[in-house]
């Protein structure tokens, strides 16, 4: 177990600020604690290099730079020779760290798949991320899949008001995300643990209505004659053409609607305008179940919609709510055993990291213990 002094020296070495004496101390410690140094290097990269497109190359560059910088500042022969003698220790361990980073076990691939439930009750698995082809077809529409994208294409203009709408439901399990293109061209990005019910073909005239459970990002095809409404458990979002995000998970305390572009009316289900709020871009409408109130606020939309690009972005967010998002993203169950940990706030950006790497990154900010058994994670305040 490394002491606080060694931890500080490691951080200074990786930041190219360690003195020659500190490098001397570190090299002797590394010689006997290679695995601990390797873990620290990987965690350092996780914090400082998250989001890099070429993470392995970024790690190699940082590690090589740290040693070369130290060697260049060595002014005395004795110190220079000392550094060269320790070079083999550092380079050997750093290369082991790089190899381990490159060979990390990939995330567990979940067996659950997104499914489409047709109106007659039959289910069609959307297979896996590589599936391509026709999912379903009738004389009115064709459903095609391309990886994680499902597209409804209208092939006949015979869906008038006098006809009955036919509904499908797309369910996305925890650990998955899916994109849906409706027959009118509206694009829907569904987050983990979400489902949406929608007509396979909309009426040629009149409103377009869908029902959402969970979270989704909408890019609505503009049509002034056919207003588009997304209904959640309690709220309706009514638009003509816009981009917005709705989060309406049943186990959350709020329903949140964030407007990115256009204009959006948000109100109670089946309301006739009384009490509705009109959102402008970069505004949030939040309904509280406990207070039974709908409030608005100006916000930075980035942290609300980053999930659409496969990014987990937390900005000064308490661990209780972060844990909920991690549960959905990784299909795990997180039990926080201490309220103090639950209330701690964290900021971080993650894309390709495993759940354990994220927990280790947060541990560097505020110390806590965790235990992972299968898909269950227990978190306690560190003694």
Automatic annotation (TrEMBL):
GO terms for molecular function: sigma factor antagonist activity. The chain crosses the membrane at residues 82-101. It comes from the Bacteria. Residues 174-263 form the FecR protein domain. Keywords: Membrane, Transmembrane, Transmembrane helix. Residues 312-379 form the Protein FecR C-terminal domain. It holds the Pfam family FecR. This is DUF4974 domain-containing protein.
């Amino acid at each position: 177990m490394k002491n606080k002094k060694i931890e500080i020296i490691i951080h200074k070495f990786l930041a190219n600020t360690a003195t020659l004496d500190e490098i001397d101390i570190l090299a002797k410690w590394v010689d006997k604690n290679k695995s601990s140094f390797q873990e620290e290097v990987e965690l350092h990269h996780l914090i400082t290099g998250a989001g890099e497109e070429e993470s392995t190359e970024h790690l190699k560059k940082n590690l090589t730079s740290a040693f070369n910088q130290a060697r260049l500042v060595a002014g005395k022969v004795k110190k220079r020779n000392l550094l060269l003698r320790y070079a083999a220790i550092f380079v050997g361990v750093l290369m082991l760290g790089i190899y381990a980073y490159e060979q990390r076990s990939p995330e567990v691939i979940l067996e659950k798949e997104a499914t489409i439930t047709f109106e007659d009750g039959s289910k069609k698995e959307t297979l896996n991320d590589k599936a391509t082809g026709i999912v379903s077809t009738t004389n009115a529409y064709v459903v095609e899949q391309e990886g994680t994208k499902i597209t409804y294409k209208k092939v006949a203009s015979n869906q008038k008001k006098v006809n009955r709408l036919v509904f499908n439901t797309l369910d996305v399990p925890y650990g998955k995300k899916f994109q849906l293109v409706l027959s009118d061209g509206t694009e829907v990005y569904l987050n983990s643990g979400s489902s949406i019910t929608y007509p396979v073909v909309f009426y040629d005239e009149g409103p377009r209505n869908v029902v959402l459970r969970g979270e989704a990002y909408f890019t609505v095809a503009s049509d002034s004659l056919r207003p588009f409404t997304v209904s959640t458990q309690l709220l309706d979002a009514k638009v003509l053409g816009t981009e917005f995000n709705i989060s309406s998970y049943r186990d959350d305390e709020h329903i949140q609607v964030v407007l990115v572009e256009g204009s959006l009316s948000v109100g109670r289900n089946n309301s006739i305008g009384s009490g509705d709020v009109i959102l402008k871009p970069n505004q949030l409408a939040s309904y509280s179940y406990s207070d039974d109130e709908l409030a608005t606020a100006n916000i930075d939309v980035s942290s609300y919609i980053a999930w659409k690009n496969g990014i987990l972005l937390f900005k000064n967010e308490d661990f209780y709510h972060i844990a909920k998002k991690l549960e959905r993203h990784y299909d795990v169950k997180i039990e926080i055993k201490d309220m103090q940990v639950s209330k701690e706030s964290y900021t971080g950006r993650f894309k390709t990291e495993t759940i354990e790497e994220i927990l280790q990154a947060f541990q560097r900010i505020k110390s806590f213990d965790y235990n992972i058994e299968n898909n269950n994670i227990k978190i306690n305040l560190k003694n």
